Structure formats: C-alpha cells, structure tokens
Amino acid sequence: MSGNTTGLLFTVTSFGESHGPAIGCVVDGCPPGLAISAEEIQQELDRRKPGTSRHVTQRREPDAVEILSGVYEGRTTGTPIALLIRNTDQRSKDYGNIAETFRPGHADYTYWHKYGVRDPRGGGRSSARETAVRVAAGAIAKKWLQQRYGVVIRGHMTQIGEVAIPFKSWDVVNTNPFFAADDSVVPQLEDYMDSIRKSLDSVGARLRVVAENVPVGWGEPVFDRLDADIAHAMMSINAVKGVEIGAGFACVTQRGSEHGDELTPEGFASNHAGGILGGISTGQDIEVSMAIKPTSSIAQPRRSIDKQGNPIVMETHGRHDPCVGIRATPIAEAMLALVLMDHALRHRAQCGDVAVETPQIPGRIS
Amino acid sequence: MSGNTTGLLFTVTSFGESHGPAIGCVVDGCPPGLAISAEEIQQELDRRKPGTSRHVTQRREPDAVEILSGVYEGRTTGTPIALLIRNTDQRSKDYGNIAETFRPGHADYTYWHKYGVRDPRGGGRSSARETAVRVAAGAIAKKWLQQRYGVVIRGHMTQIGEVAIPFKSWDVVNTNPFFAADDSVVPQLEDYMDSIRKSLDSVGARLRVVAENVPVGWGEPVFDRLDADIAHAMMSINAVKGVEIGAGFACVTQRGSEHGDELTPEGFASNHAGGILGGISTGQDIEVSMAIKPTSSIAQPRRSIDKQGNPIVMETHGRHDPCVGIRATPIAEAMLALVLMDHALRHRAQCGDVAVETPQIPGRIS
Amino acid sequence: MSGNTTGLLFTVTSFGESHGPAIGCVVDGCPPGLAISAEEIQQELDRRKPGTSRHVTQRREPDAVEILSGVYEGRTTGTPIALLIRNTDQRSKDYGNIAETFRPGHADYTYWHKYGVRDPRGGGRSSARETAVRVAAGAIAKKWLQQRYGVVIRGHMTQIGEVAIPFKSWDVVNTNPFFAADDSVVPQLEDYMDSIRKSLDSVGARLRVVAENVPVGWGEPVFDRLDADIAHAMMSINAVKGVEIGAGFACVTQRGSEHGDELTPEGFASNHAGGILGGISTGQDIEVSMAIKPTSSIAQPRRSIDKQGNPIVMETHGRHDPCVGIRATPIAEAMLALVLMDHALRHRAQCGDVAVETPQIPGRIS
Amino acid sequence: MSGNTTGLLFTVTSFGESHGPAIGCVVDGCPPGLAISAEEIQQELDRRKPGTSRHVTQRREPDAVEILSGVYEGRTTGTPIALLIRNTDQRSKDYGNIAETFRPGHADYTYWHKYGVRDPRGGGRSSARETAVRVAAGAIAKKWLQQRYGVVIRGHMTQIGEVAIPFKSWDVVNTNPFFAADDSVVPQLEDYMDSIRKSLDSVGARLRVVAENVPVGWGEPVFDRLDADIAHAMMSINAVKGVEIGAGFACVTQRGSEHGDELTPEGFASNHAGGILGGISTGQDIEVSMAIKPTSSIAQPRRSIDKQGNPIVMETHGRHDPCVGIRATPIAEAMLALVLMDHALRHRAQCGDVAVETPQIPGRIS
C-alpha cells in the first residue's frame, strides 16, 4: 500500500494539507461494538491542539473532529471509521513568500524534488498539522486497548534542551504545558523556553512513552517485531531523529550480566529490554524514548537557495512552536496505541485470543 | 503480509531455524537484467560468517548459498530469487538442556508464550543465524543500487563497550575483525574483548551505516518515510535497542540555528538531518547509527524459571559471540540496502525515473 | 491492509454508509502533475447517479463530490487525494422496519453475524451506494491512463435478462439509459423493463468492459496476474456473480487450435485471450465480461427470519433499481481503471518505463 | 508486496522455474500447534502430479516435497514453513528451439516484453509446474481448516469440451483420472480424450470446487470480499478464463424472486448465492466454478513470429496435457483453501473467534 496508510489489520489512512480544506483519516479494521464518540476523540485532540500556552504555536484551530462513518448508535460497526477535521485558521498570506524558496530544515526542498510540484502553504502535506489525525485515530485504539486488555498508554517529556525532567508522577503530566511528570521543574522550563524564544531560536526535546498491561505475546518476528514497528511509528512523526526501546543506547556500555533481565517466579527482576524480547512483548511495561529535533522555523536569518539555485537569506516569522517536542507527547502516545492495536489483532489472528491466560498449553492448535 | 516478509516492492521473505535443515529467503520484485552470481552473494556472507576470529562465535558454518530460481544465464529475470543455505554445524546436543527453561535476555520466554510451542535448538527462529539470509538478499540490493544509481553502502563499528572507535578511513574496515575504521584501535579492542571474555561476560556496541550517492526524492511520507522504514529495518535486527538518523539524540540539546542545515548553491552546508528531510532523501549521505545490546548468553550463573514457574539458575556455555555487535555491520548494511532499493522502486513507480535529473520541471505529469 | 483499501501502489480506501453523514475515499499514490478537477470527477459520477430514468432507483442524490486534499492549483501533488460525497436524501424512515429482520439476497444476515451489530439504514455499508466513490476514484485513474498511455476504458451492457444487446457502436452507449451499444434495442429494453417492474420483480444483466491501448507488459505473475486482479476488482462490485476474460466460459468447448491466438508480423490474429497471456497484458484490447444478479429488493412477499430466528414474510418497497446491472457500467469501468493504473505503476517500478518501446533490448538493467 | 506472495495473514510466497534447480514456497502466518508432515503434503501433490494416466503429460517428476522450516517435532511452530521440490526431469533439450520464438497462447511473448529477458526452458516461471507449490501449501490450509472448523474442500470436473459430467458422488472423484464425480462417464471421457489427442489438438474444461462447513462471517468487504478473493485466486491459476460464484452467469436471466435465497428457521431455502452474501460467507456451501482454456501447446503447425518480428510456423511437440483442466482440480481446491484460511484468520483478528456461535450477542466488544 502507499505511504499514507499504516498498519496491517488496524489501518489508518491519513490525508490533508495544512492549509487545504481539511485533514482527516480513515480507520479500518476496528473491531465492532466499541463505544466511541466524537467527544472522546476530541479530548485527545485538545491535548495536542495549538494555542494552549505561550510556549506553543499561537495558531488557533478548534480542530473539531467529525465522525463520518463506521459508528452507529454510538458503537463501532466494524466498517471503516472516517474522521474529518476542517481547517479554519489558514492565513495563507503568511506563507506566500516561501513558494519559490526552500526553508532550511524543512521538507520544501525534498518535496519539490520528489514530486516536481508542492503545496507551499504552511508546509502543505509535510506540516506537523497532519499529526492531529494520528491523535484522533489513536484515541480509538487507546480506548479499545484499555477496554479489551486494560492497556494504559501514557507519555511525558523527559528533557527539553539542557533541562532534564525527572519522573515524579503521572498525575501532573496533563496539568502543565510541558507534559512534565514533575511539576517542580515547570517554572524552570517556563524561564528556559522564554529565553529560547527571546533569542529567536528553538530547541530539541526528549520524550518517553510507556504502555502498561500489554499481554505477553504481541509482535511478529522476524521483520514485524513489535519494537521494529514501534520504531517505524515513532520515526514517522515529524522531527523525530532517534528512537530507543528499554535501555536504548545505554546498552552500548552495559555488560550482558547487567542488561539481560533475570526471571523469577514473581516476574522479571528488571526491564532493560523495555518489555520486548525477540520482537515479542514480555508482559512488562513497553518503554520507548525518542529525540525530537529543534523547530526548523526560526526568526533568525538563515542561508538558503531559491528554485533556480540562487543564494538567498530568509527568516521565518509566524506562529511557530519554539520546541515542537512539547506537543509531541499525545502524538507519540497515539502512535504507540496504533502499533499495539495492530499487533493485538495480528496476534489473535494467528495464535487465537489466549495470550492473557497463563500458562498456555503446549501443543494446542490455534 | 505476515511478519517474515519485508518491503513493499522489493520484498524479502525469510525462513528457517538455527538448527533446522536450512535457512533461506525469497527475494521478489528484483528488476530484470541484473548480473548476479552465487559467488558475489557469498562474498557478503563471508563477511558475517562465524568463526573468522577468536572474538566471534566459534560455530563453523560454511554458509554456502545456492540460488534456486530467478537467475538465468547469470542475470536476474524479474521472477523471484530463492536463496538457500543449508545448516551443517548444528550440534543440537549443546542446546538440549534449555528446552524446559527460559534463558534471560533471550526470546525463549516470549516465543513460548506467544506460540505455545517452540523449537529450542539454538534459539530456533529467534537465533541471529537468521540474519545470514538478510545479508544474502542485501547483496542483490547493494549491487543493483550501485549499478543503477551509484549508491555505495558501508558500515563500521563506532564503539564497543567503553571503547570509542574514531572514523579514520573506510579502507581498513574490512581488514580487522571489528569492522573498525581506525586500525590503530584494534590492539586495544583485542585486549578489551579478551578481558570481557575472561570475565565470562559480554558487552554492547554501536554501529554506523552510511549510504552515499542516494538521489534526492526517495521516501514515501507520511508513514513510510525513508527514515521510518530505516528505523524499522534496523530495529528488526536481533539485539538492536536504539536507532538514530543524522544528529540523532544529540539533537535534544541542539538549537534550531545549529541543527537546521542551511542550503547554498554548492549544496547543503551541513548534514544534521542525516540525509533525510520530511521523510525524503535530500541527496546527502544517509547517516544511520544504532545500539546493540550485549550478548545474552554468558557463562555466569543467572536466575531464571522453568516452564512450570520454578526458580532455576542457569549458565549458558557454548559458542557465543561475546559482542554480537561485531558481526552486525554487514547485517546493518544489508538492511539499509533493502530499504533503499524498495524506496527506489516505490519512487519511480509514482514519480517516474527522473529523480537523478536537476532541476525537475514543475507541472510534469509523472 | 484491511478490506476497504484496494491496490498496492495506486490505492483507494473507501468509507461510508448509505444513510450516514457521507461516503468518500482516499486515493493514494497518484503521480504528481495530473490536471484534475471536481467537475471532471463529477461527470463520471453523474453517469452512475440515481434518478436519471424510470428504469433506475428514484432516490435523488446530487452526489456532489468535494476534493479535500492532494490537488493544488488544479494539479495533483503526489499526496493523498481525499474525495467526499455528503449523503442528502436519506429518508431513513423507509428502512426502519428492517432492523430486526434479514432481507433475502441481501447482506443483512451476514453483516449481523460477522460483526454482531449493523447499521440497517439503507443497507448501511453493504449498499451499492458505496460504489459511487469507486467511480470518483476511477475518474482519476482513467484520466491518468489516458494522458500517460492513451488508454481508453469503456463499457456497455450486453444482455438484460433474456434480451441480448449486440455491439454496434460506442457512440450511442451514453445516449440511452441502458448503456446499450445498439440504440435500436432500446425500445425493446424499455418495454422489457416496464414488464419486469409491473410484475414486481427484478432481473439480472451482463456487461462488457474493454480497455484499449494498454501497453504490453502490465501484470505481476504468478499471483497478481492482471487477469486475477481484474477478477478481484469486478467480483468486489455488489451483485457480480461471474467474471470472464476474453473467451471466458466459451473456452470450455474450444480446441487449442482455435483458442490459442496466432501471432503475425502485423500483430495477433485473434484475441481469445482477452489481451492477457500468463497474467501479463499483450498489447491487445483487455476484454472483460461479468454477470450481475437481479436486484434482491422486490415488492413481492418473500420468506425470511428475524433476529430471533422466527419465520416472517417481508416485501421490500421503496426506491430500488429493477436491474442493478444498469448502473453498473460506470462502476465496472472505474474498477478496471483502478486495476490498470495500479499495474502501470507496479510495472514501471520493477521494469522501468520502457514497455511502450519495441523491441526491448535484452540484457538491459531495469 | 510483490506479485509472488498471496494472502494477507496466511501468506504463500512462491518461487521457481520449470527447469531451474527447484520450485517451492514459504508459508507464513500458519497458526502454531498444527500436526503436519511431509507425507501428508505429498499425498496432495500426488493427486496433481504428471504421468498418472495417458491423458496427462508424460513428464515424470516425483515432486518430492521437503519441509525446510517451521515444523518441530511434527507440529507447526508459528514460524514460516518453507517447502522445497527439486526439479529432476528437466530435459531442457526439448525446449531449446523456442528461445527465439513465441509460442501462440503462451506467455513467451509477454514475459519477453515485460522483462526483456526470460528463461525459455519449459516455459520458465510461466509453466503450470509452479502450481505444484500451491497444492503443497494448500495441503496445510486444508488440514487446519478441517481440524479447526471442520471445513471440507473438494472439487470435481463438470465438463471437458462438449462432454458434461454430472455430479453423482464425491466417492468416485479420486478413483478416475478425470476427477469426474460420475464414473459412468469415464469411458466416454477416455474415448473423447483419445480422439482429441489423435487430432493433435487440445480442449478446455470446467471445474467446480465446494467448501462445506464454512462458518458464517468470513470475508472483508468492501474490496476484500470473500468472493472477490476467491475470484482472484482462481484467475491466478494458469489457463483459467472465467470464474463463477453460486449461480454465476446463469443469474443474468434469473428473476429476483428466483435468485434471492429465502431464509427459514431451518436455514436458507436455496443457494443461488453460492454461500456468500455481501462478500461474507453465509454458512452455506461455498460454490465456485471456473473455465480452463485448452492447452496451448499442440502438435499442429501454428503461425507465430520470432524476436525480430519475422513470421514463422511452429509445432509444439513434447509431453503436454491435452486438457490442462484435468490436473487443475487439486490446484483449485488448494487455492480455495488458501483463501478461506486467510479469511478465517482475518475474521478472528477483527471480530474474535465467535463466528461459530449462534446467536451472537449484539453490542459485544470484539
């Protein structure tokens, strides 16, 4: 299938440009009978939407989602669920001057070379606005995973620029504009972000996403390992430059005697594996971490070229997030939900729906 | 498709267990007319094969590849290419004691829970032996990419445990057992590995893989971004726990004014993007880095459980690599080749075969 | 991918219920640079729309299509094209009585058993209304095939019930309500259809679809043969019960000396193959024929059961086509266009864009 | 995925040329725990193998299958099952004269134009020899469907040339060389086939395949309807030119009052639908019929051209089936098994494994 569909059984097909009439997606393969409403999806969208604090873009979009199909009398019917978000705050005048040039760090150059044509308004298809539909689709996956298996998926920011953010409690993550799990760091972050903004610059970030209560057995080796599909999903998010599972890059200096998680009758003694062994979930928490690059659009003069190859200098003014990582937490949660749901369905297709039982009976015919 | 096929247009379907009759793969979608021989494929396999130095497993497999189909009079015909490698040095007696128990850090536990049955001999399907067929398939992709577009794909080790390995020259990478790009570090590495082995332990590693001469335009946003598919491919390799593109995790502390690569009439002024913007190749080098966990099989006593959940203590003796990362370089090269070839074909399907020309003509009908 | 996406490279993802808010689709993988407008798509939709004569359903839907994405300044950009058709004439009161029962010949019984829930309004997802989006997507494929390769795709009715309709000329097909290629038969068809309607019954039909100027070389053996994908596409249309390529079932009594098309320096001497040999296009016309069952909704009393398994008698009144085959011609054309376009892209992915040249050079590297 | 893999969850990837070293396939996605042996697969292969009577090709291949992976201690492990059949009776001298010419009715012309190169020995990849691996893979699907759901899949010949073969009993189908379900017709068929052979000609055939005990609910509308996937599978078999489900082309002249199967508390009153409504199985027998063209290789002089376009006359001598339809019955059974197994897995992925229960509970969360 083409590049705008993800998943094998629980598929999301995304469409829409930043400043076109609408963005949206089609979610196919959702099990029937799930209670879901536009309001529930909207709640997830509102966690990601712009304009919620001075630290994110001031573009004001209601991002109101409409369910076009696949839900009848409040429940999914098993048929495709189409979700539509109309674009309302488009201000394309802000972007008119970039049609003939390539913004550094953006996809302008590559889209133009690939397709020979591009929609320059607000980055067109390459805008992070597209990720809103992932959050909407992810809301469905999150709910099903929670209802069917008790899976809980949550994310938080672990670092912005030089500022590390310790994990204290999930309780405060949604009560501050940074998705920080330690609200004592919030004043420091506010000052830090203000200084970044004043210096007309931007900064990178690091996120962590965790899925709890994932049953043992999800993942399809050798290629469609659960961790491989998670890496694919996270790296498909705009601005992500690195992905780690469990110990991640820290494993380079670890010894086998430290990294390999021992088993005890009470469970695993540690979780350096990040909840995945051999590409299959272990029943422990799925632990994912990712790096997000600094926003490319900054108000400093930067060198670039125009379509004819002439050198130019450009500054990008407008309503940009000084740290795109801030709003990425709900997106990363959504992508993890999409991957897990796809694998939940793949697992029960081949192996039946017995992963939650322990112990399984060897020799069963699935 | 199921989990043992990768790629959309240039697909590799892998099969085989470590101690079964054979491992192999079917490569489908290869363009016709490519000159390829078993000998060329064998050369790549020999770079990965066990027993080449005291620092890798002493299992001795010739890993002789046979081409079963798809090649006629020395050239590919466009039909599926089946590659077969018979297993010869199986010694299943070495592994008999593990059928009832789960080795820490291995996939024994997850395979057994997922499938309710598993082939315990040498790790069965979860053995890194499977990666030999990826190297074989990758040899075909490498050759086509080189012949058709001049793409060159090479990898080298950048760190083993605490020992960083600087990049000096590609010339020495294949002349030492560590795929080190600086042979002055080799004596230090030999001592280091000897000490690891003597301590009955193992250690992690970090690799870098680079693709040069990739045309601008490869990659299929928004989900099948080139970087997303590379992350998928690398994370599907046994023991990989982290993947970076370009600056990777270093971008967390970068400013936008540093990270965003400026453009000049002579080309990009830097390559923090790692050759990919918006999920599409920029024409610069594709830069990928990955972390590989320490070998799980070590000769120290470790806690685990048996199938009935009783606590046990196990030591894994046998012929194991003290650093599985060492032999991973050819595998990572192969996986990068598979992804790039798939995307080369996907690109010319949609956009025609014009990416190599500059400038493209806006408004063309592809 | 799930069941509502078709195609590998040129994909169509369909959504929507007969009486929900909207139907639509996402077309992904379209080459960039193609000039396309909502008006052009609308023209194809209007050929299929209800209410155009007394011989089809009197439901009146404008079926107005909106392009939501993927087109910028009148040309495709290579990004997904979302098409939306709002439902306006829903009259769900007509259908309320069927929620608890299963209409004979309809999908009510199977949807309910499969999903455990169904949208009963107008057949929900199983309504032929869904095929409107196929016609819309097909309009894009038709135009690209015509512009890029000169391919022309046309269909006509060859039989309604007992009345065979000879082929006279393509010119009259769109000037009568039956898509008949011989307008002298039209009065007979009108009388025939009136008598069917008066007898409160319905009748089957047979269609033929032809693609001219298809280059030699499209089709991907052994499974994704061009004819196999055409059969899949046609059989996926509501009410189709049989598909033939070329001679079709007539080949059962043919001799090899008759059926096997001889080659001459001027081309093939006949076309029993229907333009496909070994699953690959020959360069001759692609010839497809199909059978469409009589409309299941008729105003006669019919036996059925309710959800509890009790026997009932039901008559289906309302606005139904007495011959669903009549409006199927544009749908079959659209499906053939979708298959051909997908295969055009698949072919040039693997073999390059050289199929139109004759002769090819053996030994080329594609 | 490329054209040599079929299925979404239960996939078969086929490889091999008629006169290359081997043919074979990789079966991926098979549920674990199924008891299967090479002997069981061999039994199905022996039903199709050449040389069993004077009415089929006299090529003598043992067609001995080897299981290379995916089965441990007699049971499937859930990992890919590779099946290998070495080619032994290749006699490539028989075929040397055809490398420069195109046999009428064969794929020589299209393969050469598509790929620019072809393996001419015995038809290479386009040979019906490839279908042996489908039968081998189908044996696994057949067994699982039978064990898990009690599904029984059987086929028989219904017509050879002008000779219709009534259905009397399944018991005799495997006791005569024609897969006839009425052995009283066998002497007539033997005479008929002898006369065809003496006239140096060949003839077409019609087959019927039936699946019993298929649960209600399999099939994935709107595109991957069960009937659409069956049509795809059957049309992918060499020489098939038409496919029917249920009433098939007979529905053209049927009335809705006749065709639409009524429901009663005891079940459906008829089966014109062929066991599928709205693309989903009804629980009735799945009924499929197909037309197979006459063998293209005949010993009569036929007009053709060579690669340079010069006119030639060729006769095809050698060991050809005078009616390729005769050996097609096991192939059609196998393809139906592959489709049903894939849909069984797809169904339980989305809807859970409850289709066998009646009635289902509306509102369940699957």
Q: How is this structure best summarized?
A:
The first copy, chain A, has 366 residues and is α+β, with helices and mostly antiparallel strands. Chain A contains seven helices and 18 strands. In chain A, a hairpin with a 2-residue loop joins β5 (71-72) and β6.
Please, could you describe this protein's structure?
Four copies of one chain form a homotetramer. Chain A is an alpha+beta fold and 366 residues long. Chain A has helices at 38-48, 108-115, 131-149, 186-198, 226-235, 256-259, 328-351, and strands spanning 5-6, 11-16, 22-28, 65-67, 71-72, 75-76, 81-86, 152-160, 163-164, 205-212, 240-245, 263-264, 267-268, 276-277, 280-281, 286-292, 302-305, 311-314. The first copy, chain A, has one domain (5-352): 4-Layer Sandwich (Chorismate synthase, AroC fold). Chain A has a five-stranded antiparallel β-sheet, covered by helices on one side. In chain A, strand 8 (152-160) and strand 9 form a beta hairpin. The longest helix of chain A has 24 residues, at 328-351. Chain A starts with a strand and ends in a 15-residue tail after the last helix. The interface between B and D is large, with 47 and 47 residues. Strand 11 (240-245) of chain C pairs antiparallel with strand 11 of chain D.
